[in-house]
Design brief:
heterodimer, A: 242 residues, mainly alpha, MetI-like fold, 9 helices, B: alpha/beta, 4-stranded antiparallel beta sheet, 10 strands, 37% helix, binds adenosine-5'-triphosphate
Chain lengths: 242, 246
């Protein structure tokens, strides 16, 4: 058997036999689904955590609690800090397995466990990105808005967040690029994501090259597409920059 | 002097940052139509005093009565009272992501519930007053420092305040732009606006000030109408200060 023939055979085994290209496609679908849902959870939850943390930083840090709401804020801030420390201090694959084997022990809902653990993981990083974006806005903006008579919430909404958004967009985009790749451990909880399917094809066919390189290329393409979209969005925002 | 005429009353105001005592018992009254000019050396507490008036700084102790209400009381809604106290900053602090027009109409629309048409008509009238009607659709980054500060002044005026607070409004400006901003402030004073102005512009203090206040190390050392204050300073600290700045 000559060289080209063996390549053709490997290719066929990897993609054609048993409709394996369809399996890869469905694996890609699982990866994209987990990423999208986790990103949505990450943005919403991360944003809420960032609000608590930056409200605390701006209004209470280094001061005494005066009103009942101050104590609530203090407790919330403590919880958020704890959350961020734990999430950032442990591997995401361990978080995923805890979610699946302990929290979802009875139902074994792998996909829900993945949504939640990747989402909650992402939230911790998003929170810190958003918070640093908010804190990077000149204090004078905040003071000008408050001096007009806007309350804290309106000041955030109309003045601070719109300006912070531009600053944090690159870091936020980067977080989602990282997220896509992190979902590759979903196989640990019996999910057939892109990585899992690639590895399964490798073990069935005893062909390592085509399945693994294909999977790598697909991740790379997703990341390149995301980067491209992000650049475009950034450029559009910069053009309206004043 | 009838109490009806008092717009702001400051009663034994103290402010510390940590262990640093910045204001050590300030008492003052600002009547309607007054132009109080606050002068003093750098670090003496002028800005802190001004920023306490609208509670951008929380006083450590003492009271501030604005239109008869103690605004240092926790149970009041400070945002309502701040609407009536315009503030102009050294660094302008225009909102860079909004056009000039939007800078002026945001507060009136969201807080005073003016319609867009009302707010914009009013904004254009104010812009016209400071000669900047043609910049309504510009963004702050496209303006000179003097233009920015004039916009900042009319942004505060758009809320139709009862008093205007100025914290060194001309200190960040190139010398050739100081005049245009002072001119707007003088016009404002002539129109009867109550003002509290922290400034190093002694000419302005003399010309439009009704009450000059010299702050030193967190207390008011001397206070009086400009004629007396500048011609006949009593305390040695003020004499020393004036000899340096005049
Ligand atoms: N947020 C703060 N935290 C700690 N110290 C502060 C703070 N704001 C002001 N100070 C200190 O309080 C003192 C008075 O400051 P303030 O800004 O009121 O002075 P000022 O008279 O306005 O001076 P300048 O003419 O330089 O503007 C200074 O020593 C300053 O370092
Ligand atoms: Mg100052």
């Amino acid at each position: 058997m000559d060289f080209f023939e063996s390549i053709a055979q490997s290719f066929t085994k990897t993609f054609i036999t048993d409709d394996r290209w369809l399996q890869l496609l469905s694996g890609l679908g699982v990866t994209v689904l987990i990423t999208l849902v986790a990103a949505a959870i990450g943005i919403v939850l991360g944003f809420l955590i960032a609000m608590v943390r930056s409200t605390y930083d701006m209004q209470l840090q280094g001061r005494k609690c005066m009103k009942p709401s101050d104590y609530v804020l203090k407790v919330l801030n403590f919880i958020c800090n704890f959350y961020i420390t734990v999430i950032r201090g442990t591997p995401v694959v361990i978080q995923l397995m805890i979610m699946y084997f302990i929290v979802f022990a009875s139902s074994r809902e792998g996909i829900v466990a993945a949504f939640l653990s990747f989402g909650m993981n992402s939230a911790a990083y998003v929170a810190e990105i958003v918070r640093s974006g908010i804190m990077s806005i000149d204090k004078g903006q905040f003071e000008a808005s408050r001096s007009i008579g806007f309350n804290y919430r309106d000041t955030m909404l109309y003045i601070i967040i719109p300006q912070a958004f531009k600053n944090i967009l690159p870091a936020l985009g980067n977080e989602f690029i990282v997220l896509v790749k992190e979902t590759s451990v979903a196989g640990y909880v019996a999910l057939q994501d892109l990585t899992y399917v690639g590895n399964m094809i490798r073990s069935r066919t005893y062909e390592a090259f085509f399945p693994l390189i294909t999977v790598a290329l697909i991740y790379l393409i997703i990341v390149l597409i995301l980067s491209f979209l992000l650049k475009k969005l950034e450029r559009r925002l910069r053009n309206s920059d004043h | 002097m009838t109490t009806d005429n008092v717009l702001i009353k400051v009663d034994n105001l103290c402010k510390s940052f940590g262990d640093t005592e910045v204001l050590k018992g300030i008492n003052a009254e600002i009547d309607k139509g007054d132009v109080m000019v606050v002068i003093g050396a750098s670090g003496s507490g002028k800005s802190t005093f001004l920023r306490c008036l609208n509670l951008l700084e929380e006083p450590t102790s003492g009271s501030i009565y604005f239109e008869g209400v103690d605004i240092t009381d926790f149970s009041i809604d400070i945002n309502i009272h701040r609407q009536k106290m315009g503030m102009v900053f050294q660094q302008f602090n225009l909102f860079p992501h909004m056009t000039v027009l939007r800078n002026l109409t945001l507060g009136p629309m969201k807080l005073l519930k003016q319609t867009k048409e009302e707010a914009e008509a009013n904004a254009m009238r104010l812009l016209d007053r400071v000669g900047l009607a043609d910049r309504a659709n510009a963004y702050p980054s496209q303006l000179s420092g003097g233009q920015k500060q004039r916009i900042a002044i009319v942004r505060a005026l758009a809320m139709n305040p009862d008093v205007m607070l100025f914290d060194e409004p001309t200190s960040a400006l190139d010398p050739e732009m100081v005049g245009e901003v002072l001119e707007v402030m003088k016009q404002l004073a002539r129109d009867g606006m109550t003002m509290v102005v922290v400034t190093h512009e002694m000419g302005f203090a003399r010309e439009v000030g009704t009450d000059i206040v010299f702050v030193d190390e967190g207390v008011i050392v001397e206070q009086g109408p400009p004629s007396e204050f500048f011609e006949n300073p009593k305390s040695p600290r003020l004499r020393e200060f004036l000899s340096k700045v005049l």
